[in-house]
Structures
1.
Amino acid sequence: MKAKRPPLSKWGKAGIAILSIHLAIAIIGPFFAPTDPGEILTFIAFAQPGEEGTLLGTDYLGRDLLSRLLYGAGLTIALAAVTTAVGFVLGVVVGFYAAEAGGRIDTLIFRVVDVVISFPPILLALVIIVGLGSSIPVLIVTVGIIQAPRVARIARAVAMDIGTQEFVEAARARGEKIWSILIREIWPNSLLPLAAEFGLRLAYAVLLLAALSFLGLGIQPPLADWGALVRENMAGLYYGGWSIIIPALSIASLVVGINLFVDSLLAQANRDVSREMLQ
Amino acid sequence: MIILIVRRLLIGLLTLWAASVLVYVGTELLPGDSATVILGQEKTPEAVAALRAKLGLDKPAPVRYFNWLTGLLQGEMGNSLVSGKPVADVISGWVKNTFILAGFTALIAVPLSLFLGMLSAAFPNSLLDRSISITSLMVVSVPEFLTASILVLLIAVNLQWLPATSHLTANATAAATFKALIMPMATLTIASLAYMTRMTRAAILDVLRSPYVEMAVLKGVPRGRIILLHALPNALGPIVNVVALVLGYLVSGVVVVEAVFAYPGMGRLLLDSVGLRDFPMVQALAVLFCGFYIAINLLADILAMLTNPKIGEEG
């Protein structure tokens, strides 16, 4: 049985359009970059958009901001997607298993989940990154650990909800194994709420990774995601600030796109973006 | 009921303990230790070994953790490696500044967002509701450093009303403190306002869908009265939860905002101490941050238990 797909609102469609533009930039953007992202174009730092033969101006070293932005898009989006995927898979497996196993196993798993959720995310990231040093694998694991328990909580609730339906009861009565019930009965019927959860977590990952890069704990030079572009150009705030506003707006528009889409999915389930972004 | 609250308190303590272990392990993994940091240039192997013995760093890690934890429980957090003064003395002023920032933000954002959320819920799907909804969704999606940068560009750079960074000394006048507060506070208020307005709206709409509200509507009770007298009291539990979530957000939010404005609070001190490898400071501040966050969540859960009679019956 397939759940009828509810139509997306016009805002939801706008969200998909914004997201598609970002994805296109991430994939083909580097081919259109006027210069190499590391190339020092001019000695004039923080040139305004349009000056020095650039479209968006230069950064604190006189590099072309547009090129750095186009090259940074892939890293920003890919890192957020990978960290979210790690947290999502882990969270869904744990949450589903706890829901179907029930009893002591469920209680034990969710004690651990509650403890991990009780850490302020940015502090948890800070402590891990300070200990291990910042690198892409460390960032993936860190953000994955922050996301997984939050996904697990939703996945468990979704699985428990579906678990009360007759076709699942029937599968249990047939003596199906727990993994078979989870994969064949529960998973196909939880795609919509879980898709919304994935989107939410993606938006969350983009913002968390941007904050970490901004604080100097995320992506390290010479690589630069959009958050790192904001950080390295902070001195430019007094020279017009375009080199900060443009990458920061790129991050914001990416998250707006994701959230518009997610919001129109969640509206049908009586859930709200803001609440789940804070949890 | 009491059993439930005690159980929740115990879980809170367990979490706090887990936080202390994690913070300790995290800082232990850092290259170098207090002895090498203190000695700096003069670190001959003999001097390092002697100082390690003096500071108790030659003992195995679990023993050192235990000593640190017992010290922490007695308010003894060691000395800052940079200034040499006791950690508690160094951080108290900075902690106070963060409390002022977060406190004033909450004072402005909580009532305002409750009002906006209720207004939005009172006229669902009206133009007002839709504009509040979509604006807050956009704001929720914006990283704090963008809001902060726009504020600095507008207020400090273009209008030159305020300085861009919050220079604040320990014994600043009230006027100076207020000036330093405005922009960090505005940044945090804008974000928390958006989160809370949306959540309040959702909580009230949820209650408005219940049968007793439908009954009141059928009886012909005016809409304003329904929201204030029927919906609001029943949405209290969820709203307490909303406030707690936002206070929790502020614990994380201050770190970024203090970094942008160089506001002298706990978050900036923590980042500076990480950079300076000042282990006792990092440990103390990280545990404090986690402690506040855990305490807020704990309080919210207990209040939720007290405001929800259903939980009492089950317990």
2.
Amino acid sequence: MGAVAKRLASLLFFSQECLFFSQSRDQTRYWKGEIAMALHICWLDDLAKAKESARQTNKPVLLDFFNPQ
Amino acid sequence: MGAVTYPHEQVVKFVDYNFVPVQIETSNKAMTDQFKVTWTPTIIVLDADGNEVHRVVGFLPPEEFIPTFMVAKGKWYFNADQHPEAQGMFDEALREYPNSAAAAEGVFFLGVSHYKLTHDPKPLRAAYETLMAKFPGSEWAKRAAPYRLIPA
């Protein structure tokens, strides 16, 4: 699959990727490898959920404060 | 960060593999007060209990973001007394990004982690010597200065 096609596939599957990402990171990596490269970090917006995910996955939380303006 | 660093492919992969990323707008005053955030970007690494492990204020380009948060993840392992894993992260940061701004901190904590695992002080002396050789002007060289008194 060419680079342009990969990028297009990424855009088409943008929302599904984040949903799938939240369900299974391992599967997501497989899925991304087969169809498209990730274009973005799938940020959570709830620290409590992030801490729970961190506990389950044995990873630290990366908490980014940003100003959207 | 949102325009340059976070869209970078290597950064996306690195964050995906190593962290649970969460993004909070500065309009969330309860959160900015809780974490005493007064400037953006502010990026904080937390453990699952919410304890702060590492904090960065200000922009980081991709080639600094990755080693900075490799060292931060190493400190997360370090705080949990997972020293082989911590040393792996510090080693990776030093191997892949030897000239990054985070490298000096990685050298420091690599030496401390070896000491905590073995109780042999020689790695502390080695860390001091490495810091003086490669990063003599860094704050970490100053912090390691007492280790010069350890017999080689």
